[in-house]
Amino acid sequence: MITYILKSSVVLLILFVVYKLWLENEKMFRFNRAYLLGSLVFGLIIPLQLFSFDTKIAKAINSFQLSEIVLNNSQNSSIIANNQIITNSLLALYLIITTLLIIRFIMNLYSFHKKIKHNESLIINNQKAVLIQEPILPHSFLNTIFINENDLKNNLIDPQLITHETAHIEQKHSLDIIFLELIQILFWFNPIILLYKKAIKLNHEFLADEAVITQSNSVSYYQNLLLKMASNQSQIALASSINFQITKKRLLMMTKQESRLRAIVKTSVVGFVFATLFFAFNTTTIAQGSNRKALNEPPTFLTDTTENIQQPEFPGGMTEFYKFVGKNFKIPKDASKNKVSGKVIIDFYVEKNGSLADYKIANDLGYGLGDEVIRVLKLSPKWKPGTINNEPARVMYSLPITVKAK
């Protein structure tokens, strides 16, 4: 889970930096909306590695089967127990905060339902409008505009404000906001989600501003109207409101000229970034070469292609590696309690720099046994890298561990 969160955060951060540096200042509002929403979905899904592409490397050694390690399922470890307590505490904290956020989300939705049910409504410019008593600027949610009743009766609602909120409704910005709220409920611990939320809401304002200017063709009047309304800072949760981030950038964006050539170049670069990240997180390297069984000491031998190959070497030899695994492996509490017996097989790579990577559970007994083997392997010091003709090579190993219940 931690690996997923880290990978997801890296992807989301890269895509957000691309947006801030490459797209935010361009008058490509519809593309930017799709980019931000797509980046969120992409960043959350791609680390799951639902797709896989195999890349074969000619100069690498294929998998080696290590000798089997036999471990007895003995008494529970206090270290495992402590880790389990910490894990359960963090899970409980996550569920509590997530539950509170769900409750808040439902209450916000219910507040709109209550306003619609208990207040007078009418049709303004073919849009449903609900008249409320609170002194607040016009705002919208789903297919409804909410307007202060006294302001409407006293003709204090400028038609361009209605046009602005109508644009929010027609472009279905509320669906984006609901989607963002649900994502934030699940990933409330990730601050990058907040960056996306702010960027998407501001982009909504760019889109609504564009709709008003296109219809009225009076930029200066609309800018003055926004400045007049900027002093009113009241906001409604989940709503699209005209007073959201009245900034210099937003006003300048109204007069910015659009460049078709620049837009084509930038969208092409964005496509390249997405493709690079997609293949980077979904490509599995498959090594080619001869299959050999690993001995206690790594031998030197010749393959069918007469290349001189040296296996990787654990510090002190493979016997020390088996001792290292046996010393650090702790039977999970549930596995010990249920007297689990059987074989766990873990595949892993020894990289060119001697570090271990790309752990994969080939066979598992459940109860956290496979994850425990991976935890131990991650504690391993660097190995002496394998070589082909004295050049470092990537090597895959398969480690079988038999657990016997007492």
How would you describe what is shown here?
By secondary structure, this protein is an alpha/beta fold. Helix content is 49%, strand content 20%. It contains 13 helices and 17 strands. The chain has helices at 2-23, 29-45, 78-118, 149-153, 159-170, 173-186, 192-216, 219-229, 248-253, 260-280, 318-328, 333-337, 369-378, and strands spanning 53-57, 61-65, 69-73, 121-124, 127-132, 139-141, 144-148, 240-241, 283-287, 292-293, 300-302, 308-310, 342-350, 356-363, 386-388, 391-393, 395-405. Strands 2, 3, 10, 13, 14 and 17 form a 6-stranded mixed β-sheet that branches. Strand 13 and strand 14 (356-363) form a beta hairpin. Helix 1 (2-23) runs antiparallel to helix 10 (260-280). The protein is elongated. Residues 55-60, 75-80 and 285-306 have low confidence and may be disordered.
Give a short synopsis of this structure:
49% of the residues lie in helices and 20% in strands. The chain is an alpha/beta fold and 406 residues long. The longest helix is centred in the first third of the chain and has 41 residues, at 78-118.
